Amino acid sequence: MNRIMDAAITTATVDIRILRVSGNKMTLAVFRQLPQIDPWDMNFRVQPGRELWGTVNYCPKDCEGPIGLWHSDYGRTAHHQHVVWACSGEISRVAFPTNRSLVLKDLQRKESSGFLGGPEAAKAIGEWHLLKNRISELPQLFIAV
Length: 145
Known about the structure:
With about 140 residues, the protein is of the alpha+beta class. It has four helices and seven strands; from the N terminus they run E-E-E-H-E-H-E-E-H-H-E.
């Protein structure tokens, strides 16, 4: 027989960040319409003027995964995280690849097709790690159903 000797209920305060557009809660329908544009270059360096806002824990059915990467090879099962970002007053979203082996495979593909050289590919994976850490620190944004 299990006994609970010291049980208590505590109250916690949680800060929920809701994504809003013109003062209104962003809906799933609006989120799905955001253009999917990479805010970083092919070496995973965020371009000047692009502000990463946060992550959204939602993957639309029509999600292409990380733009141009792995979709044909891995489909929707490719590990990624949706990031919302802005530039010059326009909001976009992107699927950031979170699986290191898939990123390496893509970099090897770019290297074999002449887009990246060996040292550039090694630098790109380092930039990817930095960006992954930066994204992990972004707040989670909520959208209305």
